[in-house]
Amino acid sequence: MINHAELARTFSRLTGWRRNTALLICGALGTLTLPPFFLFPLIIPAFAGLFLLLTSAPTAKRGFWDGWWWGMGFYTTGLYWFCIALLTDPDKFAWLIPFALLAVPAALSIYTGIACLITRCLGVKGLSGIFVFSVLWTLVEFVRGHFLGGFPWNIEGYSLAHTDATLQLASLVGAYGLTWFAVWLGALPAALVDGVTGRKKAIFVLALAYGFLILGAAWGGWRLAAYDQLPQKERFVAGVKLRLVQPNIAQELRWDPKTQAQGLHEHIRMTQLPGLENITHVIWPETAVSYIIKPDTPLTTVLGHAIPPSTLLITGGIRSDDTAPKWTVYNSIVAIDHQGNIIGIYDKSKLVPFGEFLPLRQFLPKILTTPVGDTDFSSGPGPVTVSWGGLNISPLICYEVIFPEQAIDPAHRPQLLLNVTNDAWFGLSTGPYQHFTMARMRAAEQGIPLVRAANTGISAVIDRFGRVVSKLDLGTQGILDENLPTAQATPTVFGNYGNSILWIVTVVSILLIIRSKVRAKS
User: Fold this and answer.
1) Is the pTM for the entire model greater than 0.90?
2) Which residue has better confidence, 315 or 514?
3) What stretches of 272-401 show up as alpha helix (H) in DSSP?
4) Under 8 Å CB-to-CB from 123, ≥6 apart: which residues?
5) How far apart are CA 443 and CA 422, in angstroms?
6) Nearest to 220 by CA among 160, 295, 260, 280
7) 281-283 and 236-246: which strand pairing?
8) What integer pLDDT is reported at residue 465 of this predicted model?
9) Is 402 helix (H, G, I), strand (E, B) or coil?
10) Cβ contacts of residue 303 below 8 Å, gap of 6+?
11) Beta-sheet pairing, 236-246 with 342-347
12) Cα–Cα distance for residue pair 399/224, rounded to 1 Å
């Protein structure tokens, strides 16, 4: 019979390359809990394994490196698709692949290292230590999502989107609240073999924690079932019919002068497929129009004439502002009517570092500015709610949808989250699936449907619970004609209170630390 306690002690005593390898594996298992794999049970070896090694770390410095090596396993496997983007023009960018594959994960792993460093310095163990660790982990992830513009990609809360039922918990606590819950669930089994917690107590708390998960899933299932019983007129917006266009144009062809016109004609051809007379809103992906969009030009006339008088074209594109003192360019969404008039513009507010702008450009050598070019995109105001074609819309371009706090303007609650994106940069990798799941969670958090138009996929209509009503798969071409689901009449708990759960568990964590220190002195 296996002695689990002895096995855990042997594991926690690992040193040198064996310890680092174990941490790399635990981090990679963390990636497998996320989309598209959703192997949620692996959250236990991913985080219980890390916590056992962390609490046995002989020094705070070793605690930092435990977290760093875990992060390297997590980020190299979860973000490898950065390299695919560089292969769209290998002659220019292939030399950056080692940087994308190793240097970026190494920098991001500093965050996980800091979470583990602080945990080790506090010296808390057992159940209290696991709780504190999960809170610190989430706080550091929150910093990652906001510091220097933020990069909240692949936070562990997305592992709980593995079913539609568990996804409903996002409406209560949001992505960061789910991150705390997921890490806590993952690390808790370490209490069974840590040599500090009594076995009966550990089993009781473990059963209670996973009982919460089961109850949450049951509540989510009930919530979905109740909605599905509503008549169709209450589940869909009357008089609105959407057409999403997914042209599946390879990234290297989109900006090639030889194929630009062909790409535009393909968008128009697909827009005009049978059934267009019933469509109120045609939606094209991010930068679908690969020419500079300006009002009252032959280009806008062509775009307007592609649709019937009663239809509105909403497209991603690049626009410039000739009134600015210097040449200014925006990544935008533009709404165009049948006459070719631009009736609405949204300029992206959350730009991608190193993709759309270069931080600290003036201090960098010329060779490092090559991937971005000589001009940064300018950012617009956001989040905002715009009224286009009778709909109140919160526009989100690509990267913007990964920020929970950027989804809507709470003072002007929209009917629809509109996400246009171009994931062609990342091929058929895991990246587009990760991005798609984040978009689904924004809908569940806010109780507002989300419509996603992506060049190569995944395009979809998503209801206010984050469920996929219909979609076009990654790497396919097609159109999607669909009714628009209704939004929840009132804000969700998360919509009202935001990340309150994170601050509550932080306060609880501080109290546990104080109690632990008082007991140690008495």
Assistant:
1) yes
2) 315
3) 298-305, 366-369
4) 516
5) 19
6) 160
7) parallel
8) 98
9) helix
10) 268, 289, 313, 315, 336, 340
11) unpaired
12) 28
